Amino acid sequence: MMRTRARTFSRPMMITLGLAVASVVAAGCSSSSNSTQASGTSPAGQTVPTAHLPVLQKIGKGEGQLNLIAWAGYLNPLWVKPFQQQTGCQVNAKYANTSDEMVSLMKNGGGGQYDMVSSSGDADLRILYAGDARPVNINLIPSWKQFFPAFQSPPFNTIDGVHYGVSLQWGPNVLMYNKKDFPAAPPSWSVIYDPKYKGKVTVPDNPIQIADAALYLQKHKPSLGITDPYELTQPQFQAAVTLLASQRPLIEKYWALASQEIFDFKNGNAIVGAGWPYQVSTLRADKFPIGDAIPSEGATGWADTWMLAAKAPHINCAYMWMKYISTPKVQAEQAINYGETPDNKLACGYMNQMQAGSCALYHANAPLAYFHAIKLWKTPIATCDNGKPDCVPYAQWVSAWNTQVK
Amino acid sequence: MAVTEAAAPAKPATQDGVWSRVSAALWRRPWARATLLLTPPLAWFLLIYLAALVVLLITAFWQINPFTTNIERVWSLTNFQTIFSSPAYRQIILRTVVIAAAVTVTDAVVAFPFAYYMARVASPRTRTALFVAILLPLWASYLAKVYSWLLIFTHGGLLDWSLGKIGLSQVHLIYTNWAVYTVFCYLWLPFMIIPVYAALERIPSSQIEASQDLGARTWRTTRLVLLPLALPGIVAGSIFTFSLTLGDYITPLLVGGTSATFIGNIIYTNIGIANNVPFAAAMACIPIAIMAVYLLAARALGAFEAV
Q1: pTM for this entry
Q2: Which of B23, B113, B183, B304 is the most buried (most CB within 10 A)?
Q3: Does a structural domain hold residue A20?
């Protein structure tokens, strides 16, 4: 039974609708957008928009608050509480799960919402060239002089001699395995591509995972000629994506949150996979038989920086945090609790005091060879290191991950 | 004894004049009264809600700089072309719509007998108790409910344990689309029961008696009298279940596996992670278009009519 109704608009409706249309049009026309950038994607030739901003000359009185974007496990009360007591700066944590999230948060909260971000190498350049970070006066951070030379002014947080943050710690993406199913550590990453473990493998839900596949192919398919897992030509990139697509039926779940991977290992949903030392430490603390290894192909990794936001509202507290987190004792605490390698040379002694043998376990005094075996995250860009524009930029990594792999 | 006195204190003449003039003017122009009343909520709705949506959706026609992810105001339809020409995205859209439809049908089938019992059979006390039972989960946080299902479905979790107790083998439901479907059915069931209850409650029992007097038995009465009268309520409830499933991304993220990417997940990863707001906006236009069609169909079926 169709009911028809005479659709007449009464006068008040007409007036308010008229106001409505006018306001919507006005809003649409005056929408603010970020500054437009030239479409050239090469950083060579681009400048950091905030390079000219003045740096703080002296750390003043704390503002009482500090808003930090951090990886899970980086703001453990063990070292945050003493900081809050010493400086009076209350730390407000915002946890992010991927580098992409950090770039996005800094962009959208860079308008004075967050003070610092513990970004990894693959996020740093994107944050810098978008103008979301500001220069740091490295002389206000005395512990910086105790850092390993490789981390004092690394290319991911220092451009043309200007520092935009202070290096924090670094670590590998390890192969995690359940000791009950693997009595001995698997010697190769091939175990996560093995159909024998169908339904029991887990890897991060992160487009940068393509680099792990490329690292694997660097050793197992030398004919492809991969030299840097973050600089892939189209055929190399396609080979890595194909490998990951073939891995998909083996994957139970691509973990998006560190807590998901911990849950899956604990409940037997996964027995082998790629993860961070944070998950390993947490599972170990719960007495779970978890093992971790860096197989023969090497591993990808990350080097983190506490980067200063361009419009940081609590700049004195931010500098106090940078000073605090760089000191050897705090570096040792974080290294042991998370399972990563500190950038401060003097942390080693403190680490062995807190936990015997931890300095060697977390490679805090490792030779340069270890450093070179870990391929640190960096943003894939179109220009390869040899200057040719053949390489696949990150935006394609994201779309390939979403459409071809997952 | 008459004690009441007209206790009207003498008002200053000017105050009396202004207010009474305004009052009289409004009295004579009913449209002005209505406009005055409607403008604040409508302004809020339009400026804060619609305008914000328009600003976001306009970016669907723009692009981003791939390196810095800043938005470039270059008008083009590239984002829409990417979505419709890629089989992966088409599959994601299809999967979202199919699961949303499945959840809607399941919830309608489950809710109908429940609502019928509540509306027409239960005593007032039972009805109150049932209402509490339905509405109480809505007070629990969304995440708490989804995580509980995670614990039920997980390898060696509550479901496996129960099946083991009655001698059946374990089922593997976690991180599958079945888990996503089940959790959605559970989450939106209250939103389906309430409108169906409201529709069933309004049906006069005289209609059912008349149908029975004319010789129709239970199933025929249900099919020819009850269902058509309750249909507006079912359609109203289905708007909730369909649209909520269409836009959700948290349940597929937590409970879904490798093939549980929904439209919402693509939007989430593009806004929050890849910072490709234009692409996310283009993707967001799709559920809006689907819901517009759905709402028009719902209106034609009488969901918005007050009986």
Answers
A1: 0.77
A2: B183
A3: no
